[in-house]
């Protein structure tokens, strides 16, 4: 008599991990309402609104001049490791990843077309949070004993709020390591292995190994090497993807008004709920839009501040503008193009065996939904692969590859900060730790590539919240400093410095 195989640890963890994720982002447990509001969503949007109002809507008012200053950012105008533009490209390479292709599709699957409206709202408030992070990253950053500039939330917590908030910086770094290994590595490795498998039929473990080797070749050179690759690859790949999406939308222009109608109706229509508590559909749309919005643009999470801290500028306001542009480009431009293609393009799709018009109405999930929509827009085949699938898959592989580069540096900074809290930490000790982390990072890429994705995506929502909460508290406490930085006061806020024999020497 055959015995059924016991579920693996990963499968057993899916339900409890899903409950924690649902509680953090939706206020539910086992599908039932526990809180009348989604906690993480309220915190993220609430602090974003507070900073946006305090900035007198600076990110919206100054958006045009921020774009004008984009190319000036190629020139170095102060101390740092890479140009302001390279810092933006590095931050964008961390932001633009699987969230822009698979994450948008997941948001639509979870919350319907209305989720895209809430993704836009998250991005608008996120621009205020990103400005705060970018400006504080320059205002408060460390200089190592050999003259290297570095920073991020752990630095602006220590130098802006003082040693009594060391616990907050430590929690942020633990959250960063959790988020780096889950969302910055495992989810990305999983997606790139799927893309290579779909395009070339490469086994997932082998695809993971190839990517791990390529990532190691770049990250061995540290942040300057990462910034150099990001500055060359990110603008090209983003522009190419936007052009292809725009062509797909032009070809389906007549259906665009219906798409926008679906997005706005879905954002505010509680009748769409198939049961559960009143307004369930709105909560689902908000939760999906905000959670996936954060996953994609990272505003409020604190990660991009680590990249902006190394920019060669002494002007916090200028780099704050660069940071808010990253959020705008990532979500308002790239995520929106993906969403519009998924919601607009018609094709031969099925749901439960029945024909449907659009990819988002079909049985397809995640990247498969995005790839299917592009394949329907560009069905001509090359080597039996539709051009649309080819474009989407290559975009995914490039987006994910650069995300893996940047998040390795974010994790490196977090692990360095924790090491620096130990008595007797040295710069040479840091360098050895960096090398060990880079090797571990590439091993995790290889391991993560062959893992089932459902558990990892849910863990990603939890790890993003674990990283965002301490950073959002720091942004709220330092908001007065941010408002002054936006007015051009480069020395706003208190300085908490303490000479120490260990690295860094500032605190």
TrEMBL record:
<dbReference type="InterPro" id="IPR001463">
    <property type="entry name" value="Na/Ala_symport"/>
</dbReference>
<feature type="transmembrane region" description="Helical">
    <location>
        <begin position="115"/>
        <end position="132"/>
    </location>
</feature>
<feature type="transmembrane region" description="Helical">
    <location>
        <begin position="387"/>
        <end position="411"/>
    </location>
</feature>
<feature type="transmembrane region" description="Helical">
    <location>
        <begin position="205"/>
        <end position="226"/>
    </location>
</feature>
<feature type="transmembrane region" description="Helical">
    <location>
        <begin position="233"/>
        <end position="251"/>
    </location>
</feature>
<feature type="transmembrane region" description="Helical">
    <location>
        <begin position="40"/>
        <end position="61"/>
    </location>
</feature>
<keyword id="KW-0997">Cell inner membrane</keyword>
<feature type="transmembrane region" description="Helical">
    <location>
        <begin position="165"/>
        <end position="185"/>
    </location>
</feature>
<feature type="transmembrane region" description="Helical">
    <location>
        <begin position="82"/>
        <end position="109"/>
    </location>
</feature>
<feature type="transmembrane region" description="Helical">
    <location>
        <begin position="271"/>
        <end position="290"/>
    </location>
</feature>
<keyword id="KW-0813">Transport</keyword>
<protein>
    <submittedName>
        <fullName>Alanine/glycine:cation symporter family protein</fullName>
    </submittedName>
</protein>
<keyword id="KW-1133">Transmembrane helix</keyword>
<dbReference type="Pfam" id="PF01235">
    <property type="entry name" value="Na_Ala_symp"/>
</dbReference>
<keyword id="KW-1003">Cell membrane</keyword>
<feature type="transmembrane region" description="Helical">
    <location>
        <begin position="432"/>
        <end position="450"/>
    </location>
</feature>
<feature type="transmembrane region" description="Helical">
    <location>
        <begin position="462"/>
        <end position="486"/>
    </location>
</feature>
<feature type="transmembrane region" description="Helical">
    <location>
        <begin position="322"/>
        <end position="345"/>
    </location>
</feature>
<keyword id="KW-0472">Membrane</keyword>
<comment type="similarity">
    <text>Belongs to the alanine or glycine:cation symporter (AGCS) (TC 2.A.25) family.</text>
</comment>
<keyword id="KW-0812">Transmembrane</keyword>
<keyword id="KW-0769">Symport</keyword>
């Amino acid at each position: 008599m055959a015995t059924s195989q016991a579920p693996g640890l990963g499968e057993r963890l899916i339900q409890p991990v899903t409950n924690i994720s649902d509680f953090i982002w939706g206020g539910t447990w086992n599908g039932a309402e526990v809180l009348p509001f989604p906690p993480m969503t309220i915190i993220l949007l609430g602090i974003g609104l507070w900073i946006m109002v305090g900035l007198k809507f600076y990110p919206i008012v100054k958006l045009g001049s921020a774009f004008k200053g984009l190319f000036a950012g190629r020139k170095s105008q102060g101390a740092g490791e890479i140009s302001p533009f390279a810092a933006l490209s590095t931050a964008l390479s961390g932001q633009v990843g699987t969230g822009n292709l698979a994450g948008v599709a997941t948001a639509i699957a979870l919350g319907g077309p209305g989720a895209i409206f809430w993704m836009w709202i998250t991005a608008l408030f996120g621009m205020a949070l990103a400005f705060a992070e970018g400006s504080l990253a320059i205002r408060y950053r460390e200089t190592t004993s050999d003259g290297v500039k570095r920073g991020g939330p752990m630095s602006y917590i220590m130098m802006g709020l003082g040693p009594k908030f060391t616990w907050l910086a430590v929690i942020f770094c633990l959250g960063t390591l959790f988020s780096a290994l889950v969302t910055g590595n495992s989810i990305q490795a999983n997606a790139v292995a799927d893309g290579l498998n779909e395009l070339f039929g490469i086994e997932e473990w082998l695809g993971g190994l190839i990517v791990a080797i390529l990532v190691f070749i770049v990250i061995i050179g540290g942040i300057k090497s990462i910034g150099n690759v990001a500055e060359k690859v990110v603008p090209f790949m983003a522009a190419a993807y936007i052009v292809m999406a725009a062509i797909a939308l032009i070809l389906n222009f007549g259906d665009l008004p219906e798409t926008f109608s679906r997005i706005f109706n879905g954002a505010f229509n509680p009748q769409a709920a198939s049961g559960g508590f009143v307004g369930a559909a709105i909560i689902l749309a908000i939760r999906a839009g905000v959670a996936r919005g954060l996953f994609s643009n990272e505003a409020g999470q604190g990660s991009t501040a680590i990249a902006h801290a190394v920019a060669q500028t002494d002007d916090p306001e200028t780099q704050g503008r660069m940071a808010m542009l990253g959020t705008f480009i990532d979500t308002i431009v790239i995520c929106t193009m993906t969403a519009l293609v998924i919601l607009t393009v018609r094709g031969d799709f099925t749901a439960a065996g029945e024909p449907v018009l659009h990819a988002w109405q079909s049985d397809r999930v995640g990247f498969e939904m995005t790839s299917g929509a592009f394949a329907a827009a560009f069905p001509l085949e090359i080597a039996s692969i539709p051009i649309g699938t080819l474009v989407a898959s290559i975009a995914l592989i490039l987006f994910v590859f650069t995300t893996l580069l940047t998040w390795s540096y974010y994790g490196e900074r977090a692990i360095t900060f924790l090491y620096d809290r130990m008595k007797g930490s040295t710069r040479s000790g840091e360098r050895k730790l960096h090398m060990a982390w880079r090797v571990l990072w590439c091993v995790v890429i290889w391991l993560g590539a062959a893992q089932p994705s459902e558990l990892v995506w849910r863990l990603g929502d939890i790890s993003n919240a674990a990283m965002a909460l301490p950073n959002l508290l720091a942004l709220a406490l330092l908001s007065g400093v941010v408002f002054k930085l936006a007015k051009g006061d480069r020395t706003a806020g208190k300085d908490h410095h303490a000479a120490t024999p260990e690295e860094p020497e500032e605190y």
